[in-house]
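User: Hi! I have a protein structure encoded as tokens and I'd like to know what sequence might fold into it. I'm fairly new to this, so please keep things simple.
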């Protein structure tokens, strides 16, 4: 079910996560960010889906059916928060 303004949270430890595992805070969302900061293409998304399907930590099929990629823009502050949380 699509919920405008909601993103899949980047883990259960983000402060803004709700009871559905979602967040309305962009820097707390699960994001695919390329190392060159270009917008991810379909191949990047497929590589991401392949990676997470092998984690066996959740129902991948439900995740794939229930999520829809959206293109977003991050400002420098948001990117810094993401870098610090993910230690990169």
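Assistant: Happy to help. Inverse folding works backwards from shape to sequence: for each of the 88 positions I chose a residue that suits the local structure. Here it is:
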């Amino acid at each position: 079910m699509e919920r405008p303004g909601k993103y899949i949270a980047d883990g259960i430890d983000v402060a803004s996560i709700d009871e559905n595992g979602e967040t309305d805070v962009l820097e707390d969302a699960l994001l695919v960010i390329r190392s060159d900061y270009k917008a991810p293409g379909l191949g990047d998304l497929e590589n991401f889906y392949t990676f997470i399907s092998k984690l066996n930590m959740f129902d991948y099929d439900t995740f794939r059916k229930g999520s829809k990629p959206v293109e977003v823009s991050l400002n420098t502050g948001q990117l810094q928060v993401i870098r610090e949380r993910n230690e990169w």
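A useful reference point when you look it over: Helices lie at 42-53, 60-66, 76-86. Feel free to ask if any position seems puzzling.
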